[in-house]
Amino acid sequence: MGAGGIGALAGVGLAAVDFALLRLLASRVELDDTKRVLNIVGLSQFALLPVVGWFAGPLIAGE
Question: Where are the transmembrane segments (predicted)?
Fold first, then answer.
């Protein structure tokens, strides 16, 4: 597996942790709009962070 794949996997892992933390934060907020925004942001991280990791992995590894 190349550096891009490793970066994408690291992005998925980071997105999962961030999603869990944002869901925890959303459970403490009272406003429905804020809860919805936090959930949308958490889900969008699953699309964005693997792509960023795919491009950042080779840059960090020097490939």
Answer: 6-25, 37-57
Domain count, the chain: 1
**CA 39/CA 23 separation, integer angstroms:** 6
DSSP state of 52: H
Q: Whole-prediction pTM value?
A: 0.85
**Domain enclosing residue 33, as ranges:** 3-61
**By the 8 A CB rule, do 49 and 17 touch?**
no
Using one digit for the tens of pLDDT, what is the confidence trace for 4-62?
A: 999 999 999 999 999 999 999 999 999 999 999 999 999 999 999 999 999 999 999 88
